[in-house]
Design a protein that fits this description.
By secondary structure, this protein is mainly β. Helices cover 11% and strands 53% of the residues. It contains three helices and 15 strands. It has helices at 3-22, 89-92, 167-172; strands at 44-54, 57-73, 76-87, 97-105, 111-120, 123-132, 139-145, 151-156, 185-191, 196-210, 217-229, 232-242, 249-256, 259-269, 278-279. It has a 15-stranded antiparallel beta sheet that branches.
Length: 280
């Protein structure tokens, strides 16, 4: 693979990671954007290794970590969750990635604020979102700092609940898997600093998977994240979520134009409920 193809593919792989970690459930179309949290607690930490298939060889290209803590936002109790992705020295020779995503939500997972600071190659940009709920309706203020340093501000009132890549993950952890039917399609509105993206989720059923390096097996729910490209729907990510109360993403398969990438859960602490999905 030529360096140019590697760089484009690798950038897309890391760009997919937050989405595939966070889009796991149906979203309400009414103004109540919160949900009862039964999946996680303050102090949870998850670690991942990232791999890219380069010339038929799986190469480790970086790491990702996700943490959630209880805090305050404008004087009220809230959750703060952060995702950090980093390429390693081997991957940096082709394409440097240093991304930090942070969200604040209410304790019932309604989004309040989101920020993504991303260094991708020679480019650095920032996305920010502020959520308010006047009259029970979701309004979003969008702020983009482009790689040129220019600032752009937008306001949207979508008339329905909208989430970002981080808050959707927290909400998704609390979905009721028993209500999903194999083949079911779910529309997911996700905002960034420019627009609201209409993407889809397809539930594929259940599967038991083996983790990398012999670290065990898990009974998982299998879901596909879909988007429309050139008028056609395309599977971007297939991910495997523990079939227990935690709903932890333990493996993610990313399908790219020039290859494929995977993310494997490598460590965890502060998990709220027993991992009953793990097979001994």
């Amino acid at each position: 693979m030529e360096k140019k193809s590697w760089k484009g593919t690798f950038r897309r792989a890391l760009g997919c990671l937050p989405v595939c970690l966070f889009t796991l459930m149906p979203i309400s179309s009414h103004a109540q954007c919160g949900i009862n949290n039964t999946a996680f607690q303050s102090g949870e930490f998850l670690g991942y290794d990232l791999y890219f298939n380069w010339q038929f060889v799986w190469v480790k290209v970086g790491t990702a970590s996700m943490s959630t803590v209880e805090t305050t936002y404008k004087g009220k109790k809230a959750f703060r969750s952060s995702l950090i992705t980093r390429t390693n020295q081997k991957a940096d020779k082709f394409f440097v990635t240093r991304d930090t995503l942070t969200t604040y939500t209410t304790t019932d997972i309604a989004p309040l604020y989101y920020r993504k600071g991303a260094k991708e190659g020679d480019r650095y940009y920032v996305d920010e979102l502020w959520y308010t709920y006047p009259g029970g309706q979701c309004n979003v203020k969008q702020h983009e700092i482009a790689s040129s340093g220019d600032h752009y501000w937008r306001n949207i009132a979508p008339g329905k609940c909208v989430y970002d890549m981080m808050s959707i993950y927290l909400r998704a952890r609390n979905f009721d898997a028993a209500k999903l039917k194999e083949g079911q399609r779910i529309t997911l509105p996700i905002a960034d600093a420019k627009k609201v993206l209409n993407t889809w989720l397809v539930y594929r059923g259940k599967e038991t998977i083996s983790m990398k390096n012999g670290s065990g097996k898990y009974r998982c729910l299998v879901l596909s994240f879909m988007e429309r490209e050139d008028g056609k729907e395309k599977e971007i990510i297939r991910f495997f979520v523990t079939d227990d109360q935690n709903h932890l993403p333990v493996r993610l398969d990313m399908f790219l134009k020039f290859g494929s990438a995977k993310a494997y859960l490598t460590g965890m602490r502060g998990v709220r409920s027993p991992l009953t999905s793990k097979v001994n």
